Amino acid sequence: MREMTYTNAAREGLAEEMALDPTIFVVGEGIGERGGNFNTTLGLYEQYGPERLRDTPIAERGFVGMCTGAAMTGTRPVVDFMFLDFILDALGELINQTAKIQYMSSGRLKMPITLRGCIGIGGSAATHHSGNYYPIFAHLPGFRVVIPTTPYDAKGLLKTAIRSDDPVLFLEHKSLLNTKGAVPEEEYFIPFGEARVRRTGSDVSVVAVASMVNKALEAAEKLADEGISVEVIDPRTIAPLDMNTILESVHKTGRLLVVDEDYAPCGIGAEIATQMMEQGFDDLDAPVRRMNAAFAPVPYSQPLETALVPNVETIATAIRNLRAE
Amino acid sequence: MREMTYTNAAREGLAEEMALDPTIFVVGEGIGERGGNFNTTLGLYEQYGPERLRDTPIAERGFVGMCTGAAMTGTRPVVDFMFLDFILDALGELINQTAKIQYMSSGRLKMPITLRGCIGIGGSAATHHSGNYYPIFAHLPGFRVVIPTTPYDAKGLLKTAIRSDDPVLFLEHKSLLNTKGAVPEEEYFIPFGEARVRRTGSDVSVVAVASMVNKALEAAEKLADEGISVEVIDPRTIAPLDMNTILESVHKTGRLLVVDEDYAPCGIGAEIATQMMEQGFDDLDAPVRRMNAAFAPVPYSQPLETALVPNVETIATAIRNLRAE
Amino acid sequence: MTLDIASPERTAIAPDAAHALYREMLRIRRCEEQLVRSYAQGLIPGACHTYIGEEAVATGVCAHLRPDDTVLSTHRGHGHALAKGVPAREVIAELFGRATGCSQGRGGSMHLFKPEVGMLGTSGIVGPSILMATGAGYSFKLTRTDRVSVVFFGDGAVNNGAFHEGINMAAIWNLPVIFVCENNMYATEVAFASVARNTNVAERGYVYGLPGIAVDGNDVAAVYTAAGEAVRRARAGEGPTLLECRTYRTRAHSEGMRDVGYRTKEEVDEWKRRDPIESYRTRLIADELATDDDLRGIEDEIAAVIAEALDFATHSPWPDAATATAHVYSTT
Amino acid sequence: MTLDIASPERTAIAPDAAHALYREMLRIRRCEEQLVRSYAQGLIPGACHTYIGEEAVATGVCAHLRPDDTVLSTHRGHGHALAKGVPAREVIAELFGRATGCSQGRGGSMHLFKPEVGMLGTSGIVGPSILMATGAGYSFKLTRTDRVSVVFFGDGAVNNGAFHEGINMAAIWNLPVIFVCENNMYATEVAFASVARNTNVAERGYVYGLPGIAVDGNDVAAVYTAAGEAVRRARAGEGPTLLECRTYRTRAHSEGMRDVGYRTKEEVDEWKRRDPIESYRTRLIADELATDDDLRGIEDEIAAVIAEALDFATHSPWPDAATATAHVYSTT
Ligand SMILES: Cc1ncc(C[n+]2csc(CCOP(=O)(O)OP(=O)(O)O)c2C)c(N)n1
Ligand SMILES: Cc1ncc(C[n+]2csc(CCOP(=O)(O)OP(=O)(O)O)c2C)c(N)n1
Ligand SMILES: [Mg+2]
Ligand SMILES: [Mg+2]
Question: Left, alpha or beta for B297 (phi > 0: left; psi -120 to 50: alpha)?
Fold first, then answer.
């Protein structure tokens, strides 16, 4: 099968959808002629022009509110935030309007809006360009939250997101953008709420989110040599969350570690751990463990930034410890 | 000891601090001559005038950003949002600036800002005036989150909040504003991170937040007649969170229910449940259980609104079930 | 680009159109008066912000709109919903919290939805409607229709970033949006003059590069005339307009609230004398556009409509608690 | 209220002040040029937005500020930090990620903090600095000082709600704040003219009720003169000023980014010909405010400062990983 990068796969998905549906338009800063700071729209402006690839003023609140109104009236906006950090000025619109209007209108209005942005700690991006923030959206009714980790998933989930009539957060970890993977020529879609077992194992289950999936897989590889068999699960979407796949895995292993680059308190790890306890308490041979970023804003300097996030070594250690509990 | 309402106790705390420190000022809509939509500043304008009781334009993002700059430069703003729902337009400022500047300046700048607003579901306030939203702040580094439930706590915690050099969310549930309680004449402060056991019991521990505390106490009363002994804990501040008091309680009871009016996913119940498992797994005779608002925006009509939130009956039932597990 | 307050063109409006304007203002007024009574009787569980004194604005603007045109509005939105075609019975039922309300009981006074007639919703938050209306305009332009998007907002929204960001986008992209500012001089109890150095809202159109027009918002003919031109421009693809209507709410900010201290009784009385409905009634007769009998006929008709609406609301069922979590998502 | 571009008053500036302006612009330029080289050498792990071509703005404004006055700025903030008194060694060390940087390695190019000299921080987010500067002005007024708060921001921030809300608050409360818009005609690769119908920023002062002044941002004397009056007004309690400086960045938006397509080579070259430092050098000699020798002396002096700064940064220690979570809170 052909190989392509995560970014190119996602862009192919966007291009396919835009070709099929003239009501889809993209807004953002530099997503027109420039093709996007992260090449998310490269080449599309030449095909579809400024109305469907709309360079905006630096007014995140404004264009999110605008796209909310557009989504209510028959078009399908894709908001490209570049860095997800820039979504924060628009949380008022997203939480009070975008997420609530389907409910308040009893389903008479739809909200087909895709909100995409790059997340993640790394590369000395510092505290205004390293945000994750996804638990905010998972906490509130009305949002879908998608976090693809492979080119295949990026394309298939973006196409599902754009076709969805619900507001969807589509979050791309910066460290994954240039990773390559197999992507079929034929059209395909990936439904929300289906986790993927990335590696099967029998001793410990690890649920990893975003960039942590690859780190967890590396750690699992290491541990295999030590005779520790680790199962690695990528939830792919955290809202909806596929607990069944996690429950089945822990039924087998009895142990669960959640590795998440975002902060721990009220995070996705807490939610998974709690549901695990609620739905599979008797399967647990040890408490569910969490690994997260240290509880501080993201610093610039390499030694500080590195100290903040879980890495292959610390993940491996956590798995060993959990195995031994 | 004298009795006073929650609102009057909090206002007395604010008045005491303003009398002592001329750098304290309050901003908000109608907090000047009007004295605040919820009487939070009643009578203070006459004493301190417009510079220290500043009626603002409807520009929540603007005056939060402004107060962030003020707090960096030697004054101590108190932002009165009236309804906490209105804070959402300011989340960009709060998350990227207010919460991060102490860290980014390595502590050379302080951030003594108090952010107060009314929370909670009830009285057909509908979806734009019923928000809770506190997990958003508990999730992120840099904030303190205070949720008093008695007049005594409201005054003592507000005074601590105003004296704090950290950003503090001070959240008042609408259903508590007119409740009365004992408040001493002498000055006092209540430190953050100290939960209060509101009722001791031996069969089941219940951690309840905001308005759920009184409902849980009622349920406990009911169950006492059935011979079920319930311990009720009010965390009072959820960031910092006093897990020790909860752990001690569950060490005794073996069972924990968290009752929270806010939504479940990635909420404070998930955090408490996960920490309980992490730190007291062997004390648990049953999985930690959560009760939360149903996962939907808050509707207006009474039968719908009522259906959304836990009540004394459903809490009692949940405790019975947990006891039986 | 800013025009002075347009002097109403007395001859421009045909009798039947004039009667329709009178009828609509009256329907709004009588509906609001009923809501005031019902609120006092405890039949409205939540808030109730009346539009009394400002009826000429919604009426004069919406008279030009088609059902497929859209309106977004604010916490003070009863009048906008009614003028856009929501039956009074559905507004009253909504404030009563009944399943037959235009929002099926989910919204109440501040969340009136009826997409079927182009009412895309009122908002309990000040600001967002301006942005959503801009987005509706974006849809209408992108899909090559001649539909028009209208948003009503108060002077309180003018100092909010949504005003700045929304109007700018509509201007630079030349969207078919009409921004109607109901400048009633106060936001709750905060005077506009205390939070804006320059209280001339229409003038602000200049910096965004769109026409800003100020009219007497208590003169339905003036509003009708100015809005007609704004709607024509929007439909013709000539772009957005900022329409400032200077008006006044003669009741408290919301029912149950006191109404003293921040404004004088003299000021309130002065504006009551400029009542948009009374003054238009007088003028219709003076201009021989209607006889007293014509207007009495309309008044009786409206009285009957409101009586029926109240009866409908009173006897409507409550929503089924089992539906409380329906429609959070389109897909499962 | 809007003035035309102020024609620089050639005689107003005394020789030593003029030399200081030249020295400061040159220090910024040489520091930026060093950062460009260091970036190319891979010594700067994060972003690097240079101020090359805009030095006259920070220099002309900050020349009037006391250490206890404050500055807030943007992602393009090296020049502002330097002009406010942050040593070049601490700026270079910061971009290198060293413990000796002005932000102790926590910030990098977009987060330069040095409260000791009134540098309250640059921001990686467009908008907030405008609001925080308004708040600093609020503190200065409330505490009865004559301190002045200055914020620098780009044309890209003008369409953001923070501009609208912040400037309005400063105007209605008459705060000692100077809003300096560096209008370099582009936000990354988006032309200001494509996102604003009216690109005259100074004119916007009118709607907020504060003076709006536009100057040639490549003419340090013009900036110095206009800023002097703005600072005087602020200190005297006469309120805020909006100062638009028309300038241009002659390098790419940030180092490592391409710089083609969105603007022409001719345009860039035209502005390079209007280099603020070269043109001021020529004028100083023509006006006999300095000799070529004077200026060579300054140039050698600055070369030494930057060489020492680079050496300092290069040999500075990395932050201790154990401190990564310190100072999140003041209290424990
Ligand atoms: C963002 C936000 N802040 C505060 C409020 C509370 N509030 C409700 S109505 C109102 C005043 C609105 O005044 P204006 O926009 O002039 O409309 P009017 O009531 O005069 O018709 C305020 C402050 C709100 N609804 N939304
Ligand atoms: C809220 C926000 N949105 C987007 C960005 C990404 N961004 C960084 S700089 C920039 C352009 C800023 O242009 P301008 O304000 O004119 O400053 P200049 O770079 O021209 O000096 C953008 C869009 C950001 N930093 N913050
Ligand atoms: Mg008003
Ligand atoms: Mg610029």
Answer: beta
Give yes or no for a contact between A183 and A152, defined as CB atoms under 8 angstroms apart.
Answer: yes
3-state secondary structure B63-100: HHHHHHHHHCCCCEEEEEEEEHHHHHHHHHHHHHHHCC
Give per-residue pLDDT as tens, D64-97: 999 999 999 999 999 999 999 999 999 999 999 9
Q: Is A172 in the pocket of ligand 2 (CB under 6 A)?
A: no
Determine if the peptide bond prior to B240 is cis (ω within 30°): yes
**Nearest Cβ partner of C209 from D162, D165, D197?**
D197
Q: Is C228 on the interface with B (CB under 8 A)?
A: no
With a 6 Å cutoff on the Cβ, whether D192 touches ligand 2 is no
Per-residue pLDDT at D49 exceeds 60: yes
- The SS3 of residue A290 is strand
For residues D95 and D105, what is the distance between their CA atoms, to the nearest angstrom?
7
3-state secondary structure of A78: strand
With a threshold of 0.90, does the pTM exceed it? yes
Cα separation, B201 vs B244, in Å, equals: 16
Q: What percent of chain A has pLDDT over 70?
A: 100
CA nearest ligand 2 atom 17, residue? D154
Across the interface, do C128 and A65 touch by the CB < 8 Å criterion? yes
What ipTM was estimated for this complex? 0.98
Q: How many CB atoms lie within 10 A of CB C308?
A: 13
Ligand 2 centre distance from Cα of residue B87 (Å): 24
What is the pLDDT of chain D when averaged over all its residues? 96
Does D4 have pLDDT greater than 60?
no
> Could you tell me the distance, in angstroms and rounded to a whole number, from the CA of residue D300 to the centre of ligand 3?
62
Residues with pLDDT less than 50, chain C: 1-4, 8
Put simply, the answer to whether B56 touches D169 (Cβ < 8 Å) is yes
**What confidence score (pLDDT) does residue C1 get?**
35
Question: Helix (H, G, I), strand (E, B), or coil: what is residue B233?
Answer: strand
Cα separation, A92 vs A62, in Å, equals 11
| Averaged pLDDT of chain B | 98
Which candidate from D161, D197, D207 shows the least CB-CB separation from C161?
Answer: D161
Please count the residue pairs, one from chain A and one from chain C, whose beta carbons lie less than 8 angstroms apart: 154
Listed in sequence order, the DSSP H helices in A183-311 are 212-225, 243-253, 268-280, 302-308
**Is-contact A262 A134, C-beta < 8 A?**
yes
d(CA C214, CA C205): 11
User: What does the alpha-carbon distance between residue B169 and residue B132 come to, in Å, rounded to a whole number?
Assistant: 12
Only one residue has tokens 């399943």, namely C99
Closest-lying ligand 1 atom to the alpha carbon of residue C184: 20
CA distance A17 to A188: 12
CB of D184 closer than 6 A to ligand 2? yes
Say whether B266 and A139 touch across the interface (CB within 8 A).
Answer: yes
In chain C, at which residue ranges do the beta strands (DSSP E only) sit? 70-73, 119-122, 149-154, 177-183, 186-187, 190-191, 212-216, 241-246
Neighbours of ion ligand 3 (CB under 5 A): C 154-155, 184, 187
A254 pLDDT higher than 70: yes
How far is residue C10 from each of residues B266, C19, C63, C176, C294, measured CA to CA in Å? 62, 14, 17, 28, 19
Q: What is the mean pLDDT of residues D10-32?
A: 92
D125/chain C closest Cα distance in angstroms:
16
Contact C134 A57 (CB under 8 A): no
pLDDT in tens, C241-279: 999 999 999 999 999 999 989 999 999 999 999 999 999
d(C-alpha B19, C-alpha B7), whole Å: 18
- The structure tokens 């509003």 sit at C223
Structure tokens at C141: 């332009």
- Per residue in C114-154, pLDDT (tens digit) is 999 999 999 999 999 999 999 999 999 999 999 999 999 99
